[in-house]
Automatic annotation (TrEMBL):
The active site is at Y52. Belongs to the aldo/keto reductase family. It comes from the Bacteria. It comes from Streptococcus ovuberis. SUPFAM superfamilies: NAD(P)-linked oxidoreductase. This is Aldo/keto reductase. Pfam families: Aldo_ket_red. Substrate binds at H110.
Length: 272
């Protein structure tokens, strides 16, 4: 069975396909074409967000792919800047409308702090209470049947610990940046302990790994491309990769990762 048909099982029993098409920074028309092409060629999982500005086109791509709605796993996200319960409800409802669907398979809080504050140190405001309000909106929408699963994105261990203190439902997913050389072991260990699936975006480090000589040697050994090694690296760690491309050739290649990286090669990649 192709890896694109294989699934992870979330804490609530919902199955999520092991490789998803990322659409971050995909212009609307590109997102439409990429979504439609990917779903026509073996993919079943597409990841978008309210702030990407391409949900309408992603939804159209799903419809025009010929797959039944229940066959496609759609992820979206509440904007990191919308920190109230009411804004979160609005994001969920507007995402449903933009995507043209009756339910969203997975909805995430896009980040624990507004993007303008995400990389500032020291952290002045953690937004613990605001994130709890956003989470309450997700819990309510989940219980109302609008969402099949709920989770977070870009949350650190500290962010997760404070959210869990107030949550009725434990997040099912934490979507973080994850690639060779940026592996965040503390978050991974915490999520494994709490049965939270980790999804990794930018598995090829937004292209920065493409010229790496060591990874290229390994790609040659396996007769694969560097992106395929990078994507498989996440799968070997039971992390769900979300490679993004709008090019048909690369969309196909990114799904052709039905191979195994040997333990000694994983050790080498871990050392980078």
């Amino acid at each position: 069975m192709s890896i694109l048909k294989e699934t992870f099982t979330l804490a609530n029993g919902v199955e999520i396909h092991k490789v998803g098409l990322g659409t971050w920074q995909s212009a609307p028309n590109d997102a439409y074409r990429a979504t439609k092409f990917a779903l026509e060629n073996g993919y079943y999982h597409v990841d978008t967000a309210y702030v990407y500005g391409n949900q309408e086109e992603v939804g159209r791509g799903v419809k025009d792919s010929g797959l039944a709605r229940k066959e496609v796993f759609i992820t979206s996200k509440i904007p990191a800047e919308w920190k109230s319960y009411e804004e979160s409800v609005r994001a969920i409802d507007e995402s449903l409308k933009q995507l043209g669907v009756d339910y969203i398979d997975l909805m995430l809080i896009h980040a624990p702090r507004p993007w303008s504050e995400m990389h500032k140190r020291p952290i002045i405001n953690h937004y613990y209470d605001e994130n709890a309000e956003m989470w309450r909106a997700l819990e309510d929408a989940y219980e109302a049947g609008k969402l099949r699963a709920i989770g977070v994105s870009n949350f650190s261990v500290d962010d997760l610990e404070h959210l869990l203190e107030k949550a009725r439902i434990t997040p099912m997913v934490n979507q973080i940046i994850y690639h060779i050389g940026n592996t965040n072991p503390e978050v991974l260990a915490f999520c494994e302990k709490h049965n939270i699936l980790v999804e990794g975006y930018s598995p090829i480090a937004t292209g920065r790994l493409l010229g790496d000589e060591g990874i290229q040697k390994m790609a040659d050994k396996y007769v694969k491309s560097i992106p395929q090694i990078c994507i498989r690296y996440l799968l070997e760690k039971n992390i769900l990769p979300l490679p993004k491309s709008v090019h048909e050739e690369y969309i196909l290649q990114n799904g052709q990762v039905d191979f195994t990286i040997e333990p000694e090669d994983m050790t080498y990649l871990d050392s980078l």
